[in-house]
Every structure is written in structure tokens, then in C-alpha cells.
Design goal:
Helix content is 36%, strand content 22%. Strand 7 and strand 8 form a beta hairpin. The protein is built from ten helices and 13 strands. With 311 residues, the chain is an alpha+beta fold.
Length: 311
Amino acid sequence: MPYRHTGPTGLGQIAQQAAQVLYQHRLASTRQLHQLITPHHTRTEYVRRQLHSLRRAGLAETVGRRTSGQPELLWWLTKRGANAVESVGLLPQRPYRMSSDAALGPLQEHTLATVDTGLAFVDWARRLGHECGPLDWSPETAHYYRSDTRPGEDLSLIPDAVLSYVHTDSEAKQRTLLNFFIEVDRTQMSIARLAQKLHAYAAYYDFTPQVSRGTKTSRHATTPAWRYRYPAFPRLLVVLTGGTESRLSRRIADLRSLAASDPALTSTPLRAGVTTLERLQNEGPFGKVFSPILGPAQPTDAWLRQASPAI
């Protein structure tokens, strides 16, 4: 079937796909966009031409990045480009707008590492015959809750990404929907702060909102807030990068130690695992790459699919 234009840009299919990816993920390199959108092309020239057509149309811009002394272009949507994507109505609208200052700012590497994490899932889904595409994760989606440790405050849990993945077992003829909360750590925050983020996930797991009926508020609601969004509570995956292998290994051990001393974590059914971005990329999410943050330290894959809904 010939491609039918679905947006106001007047550009080709690949350029429009690139615009959607940039709208959702805010910032991406040429390499990342090539792997996400045109992996069937051996070289990056084709997607590069499409990206430059976005820039000529005033829909995208670039900033520079230097990795190991080599220049690399990073792409982001202009306000006009974001408005063009929104006018099509295919993606949930996001109020955030990227700018050259933000693209060059201190969160640049963290944003790119988050894209690389999602890309690892997309790459392995292709290899394994599962389903996970370039738009199957959303960055920084807020989840609101309250905690007994901070009474009266409205709190928000904002994962670096929420990723959806359909696992296919061809032998059992079963498809399983998996949702993941993803936290990317580039060793920039203290290990104590990272452990505190785990505490927030446990609090969100237990949070049951009060139900209002007219002018009265019932305190007998029994449905946790997360059940209104997910069929099963997403697994929490902590992905480490930005350090040597030995440093990341120590960080994993420290995180497990702090988690084991937090009663809010040891008493919750929260399933959480930690690995490195390199292992995730090289061995895939269903290799034995995730060390459970609670319990035995031996890496496993068994907990990833447990209690997930079949579709």
C-alpha cells in the first residue's frame, strides 16, 4: 500500500516518524534515530537526509555533542515541529518544549541514556519476535500519591520512563503484556538518594486514594491508585551507566544493602531489579542481567514475566 500523508508537514513517512520520536523523547542522536526508525538500512545516510528535511522546514534543530572527541549531531523539535505533531493527534500531548539551551543543558546525557535504554528493548524485541517500538515508552510521566511519612502533602513519582512490551511465547501460543518503570542512573546522584527513589515506588504501590461522595469523603476505598492505570504493577528496572564496570558493581551492591535496611521496601511486593546499560544492550532484557534489588543477589530473568497479564 502506498504511503498516505497523515500530517501537515508535507514530508515523507520517515521524516514524520522521526518527528514523532523526537516529540515523545525530546532529544536523540542521528545514530539512535537510525536504529529506532531505519534499522533495515545499513548506513545512516537515508535517515540523515530525512532529518535535514525536517530542519529545512523549520520543524527540527540540532545541537552538537562530543563523545570520545568525535562530533555527533543531536536532534530536537522546534515549537513549530511540536505543534505539527500535535495537530495530527496520534500522540498524547506533552506540554514540554525543547530548546537549544535545554538540549545543551546538564540533562543532555541523561536524556540520551534513557533513549538508549528504550532502544535496547526495541532492538531485542526485533530479535526475539516480540513487540516494542520507538513510541512504546514515555519519559517522565507523573504518578501522584500520598505517604504516611509526609502527611497532607501531594507527592509525585516521576519515572525516567514507563515502557510497554509485549512478550510472545510461540510454543505456548501466549502473548504477555509487560509494563516497566525505568530509572536511569548515571552515577550523578548519591546512592542514598537513589535508594530513596525506591522508597517512593513502595509508597506509590501502597497508595489508595480516598473516594469522595458528594460532600463526604470515604476512607474505605480499597483499590490502589496504580490499578486505574496498569493491569499489574510495573516492574521497576534500575539501569546504571556512566562509570566503570567495577564502580557500577559497587553501586549495585550498595543499593541492595540500603534497600535491605528499608522496612518499607522489605515489606512490599514491589519487584525491582538493577543492571547496567551495557549488559542490557549486549544480553537483552530476558537474559540473566537483572539482579533483584531485594533478596538473593544472583541475576535472574524469572521475575520479569511473573504475574503479568496474558493478552
